[in-house]
What we know:
Layout: H1 3-25, E1 28-31, E2 37-43, H2 47-56, E3 66-73, H3 83-109, E4 114-116, H4 136-144, E5 148-150, E6 154-156, E7 165-172, H5 176-189, E8 193-194
Antiparallel strand pairs: 1-2, 1-8, 2-3, 3-7, 4-7, 5-6
Helix pairs in contact: 3-5
Cobalamin is lined by residues 46, 48-49, 78-81, 85-86, 89, 119-122, 132-139, 142, 151-156, 163, 165-167.
Amino acid sequence: MSKRQVVEQKNRRLRQQLLDTSLHDEPINLVTATEQEVQISVHQPSSFIAQNLEQVIPDWNSPALWVVLVLQRSQYPLSECTPDVEQEKERLREKFLRFGFDVAFNLRDSQFWSDLIDPRTGSPLLSRPGKIPHDDTAVVNALLGFPITYNRCTVLEHPTWGSAVYPGTLMSSASPEVIKPILKAIAALHGWKELKSSLQSTPEVSAL
Ligand code: B12
């Protein structure tokens, strides 16, 4: 193989690695049948959860733990307490629970530990509650770096949606390689269409 071919081969491998890594960390961007945006991402646990897991999900019994963040764009900013906001929170909670239970049970059927957090209370829904309620906003802040504003509660500021973001958290012992295809398949079952990211729209990497 000529020196030039060796260099080209190396470059192709490097580009593929870059693509694979970025696809690995890349959030799944979706839009529901009612044009509402949803962003799903898979992460290693925050240090707080890694250190306090027994206090938050006492029944978790696997050394492996991956955190799935499901962010739904709300019709209204969620910083105020109005009947519309309360109704919207209930609507988004129900959508998260329908999706979350489908994912958690699918993973459980494949013998992976899985649970989801009730956004209304911070308690796990498929195992006993812990001494510390899971703080969804603190976790999104730790894993995605979104700033938090404080009023009587803690409110996330999404980079483009502002406070119109409704966070939901799932956890599993399955790896991202296992979880992601299941997230996409169940999202499709819920009528959520995937928005292709810029990275995914360059299929001709190998041809370069
Ligand atoms: C309890 C709660 C309330 C309580 C008060 C909570 C408080 N902060 O004191 C009340 C009922 C007052 C409240 C009000 C509101 N809330 Co509220 N609330 C929650 C709930 C259910 C739990 C929050 C909680 O327990 N935080 C724990 C804090 C209080 O404890 P702490 O001692 O300060 O800190 C500990 C925790 O952070 C803990 N911890 C646990 N897990 C983790 C993880 C990490 C990484 C870290 C670092 C720490 C940590 O460690 C710390 C030390 O022990 C969350 C949903 C959730 N599951 O997170 C929604 C939530 C935060 N609230 C929300 C909202 C929108 C509101 C309101 C602003 C509006 C509304 N209509 O509901 C109002 C306030 C309105 C106003 N004008 O002031 C939204 C925020 C959405 C967003 N965009 O960010 C959430 C996410 C619910 C939702 N899914 O919509 N809320």
